[in-house]
């Protein structure tokens, strides 16, 4: 990978990791569902007026919008509000990779390798260690909500694969159009019409920054760069860099909220990242070692 492209990839993973802390900043004055609703309103508008509807069935676009906007990011917002730190949320959400593997086996009859089983087992040890943390940055409700978000992300990944969408950016923009109404409706059902007046009264520059950061660097620009890199380089070259997202997530939470990263969190993070690495790239790593050993003997 060219150096400038590598720097772009690292920038995207840093933005995605930092985004969890930025979400938490926004939640200090804005309801979780309204925060997500504002995010996806701006992801859709005004770009839907300039981008052609993707050449897929409208059902795929609507369902993806509900999964990605409502069931993933609104629920992650809720999990962070429920007491899960931004750093831990970024780590737990990575379980979407394992859910995608399991769903792929269930829906597409894809085989699960021994490396994937081993990776899942290692990561589950890390999750168990996270649940045992008692420093106030972890709640069972928060973990459960973000795990639900991870499952929703996996379903969204399966859906976009099944749709065969080629215009990924247009797909993301148009699907965002179907997220805000359910999100604003849920907020209304929870709190009544007063929630909108309350939001207008309480929203501050920090919340506005949070919303704009989630819309542009994180969603529109981040996914555009990442998908462009995936089209330019093999998936095996680009995808492993996503393992840095929870690293930047923990660093961001430490810098912005002074979250303490003690031994338990360090070990848990190491186990989950190791599990992801083994599950997703273990086979390629072992094959590379074997090829190197064969060339050395020749």
Describe the structure.
This protein is mainly α and 298 residues long. The protein has one domain. Helices cover 78% and strands 0% of the residues. It is built from 14 helices and no strands. The chain has helices spanning 3-26, 32-44, 58-81, 86-92, 96-108, 114-131, 140-163, 168-176, 180-191, 194-202, 205-232, 235-238, 245-257, 263-297. Helix 6 (114-131) packs antiparallel against helix 14. The mean pLDDT is 90.
How do you describe this structure in short?
Helices cover 78% and strands 0% of the residues. The protein is an all-alpha fold.
For the structure shown, list the relevant keywords:
single chain, 298 residues, mainly alpha, globular
Percent of residues in helices: over 70%
Total strands: the figure is 0
**Percentage of residues in DSSP E strands:** under 5%
The main sheet comes to: none
Rg, please?
20 Å
- The coarse overall form would be globular
Structural class: mainly alpha
Total tally of structural domains = 1
**Number of H- or I-type helical stretches:** 14
Mean pLDDT over the full residue set: 90
Distance between the termini: 29 Å
Give the low-confidence spans: none
């Amino acid at each position: 990978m060219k150096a400038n492209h590598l720097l772009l990839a690292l920038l995207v993973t840093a933005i995605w990791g930092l985004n969890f802390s930025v979400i938490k900043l926004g939640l200090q004055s804005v309801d979780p569902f309204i925060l997500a609703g504002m995010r996806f309103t701006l992801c859709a508008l005004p770009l839907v007026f300039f981008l052609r509807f993707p050449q897929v069935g409208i059902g795929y676009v609507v369902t993806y919008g509900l999964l990605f906007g409502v069931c993933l990011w609104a629920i992650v917002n809720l999990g962070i509000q429920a007491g899960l730190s931004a750093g831990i949320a970024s780590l737990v959400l990575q379980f979407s990779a394992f859910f995608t593997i399991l769903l792929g086996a269930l829906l597409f009859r894809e085989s699960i390798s021994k490396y994937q089983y081993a990776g899942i087992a290692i990561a589950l040890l890390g999750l168990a260690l996270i649940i045992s943390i008692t420093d106030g940055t972890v709640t069972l409700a928060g973990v459960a909500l973000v795990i639900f978000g991870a499952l929703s992300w996996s379903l969204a990944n399966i859906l976009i694969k099944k749709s065969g969408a080629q215009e990924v950016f247009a797909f993301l923009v148009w699907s965002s159009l179907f997220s805000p109404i359910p999100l604003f409706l849920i907020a209304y059902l929870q709190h009544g019409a007063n929630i909108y007046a309350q939001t207008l009264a309480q929203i501050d520059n920090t919340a506005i920054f949070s919303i704009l950061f989630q819309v542009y660097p994180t969603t529109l620009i981040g996914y555009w760069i990442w998908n462009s890199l995936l089209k330019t380089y093999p998936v095996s070259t680009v995808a492993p860099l996503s393992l840095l997202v929870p690293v930047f997530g923990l660093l961001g939470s430490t810098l912005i909220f002074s979250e303490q990263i003690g031994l338990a969190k360090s070990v848990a993070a190491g186990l989950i990242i190791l599990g992801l690495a083994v599950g997703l790239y273990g086979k390629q790593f072992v094959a590379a070692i074997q090829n190197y050993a064969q060339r050395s003997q020749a």
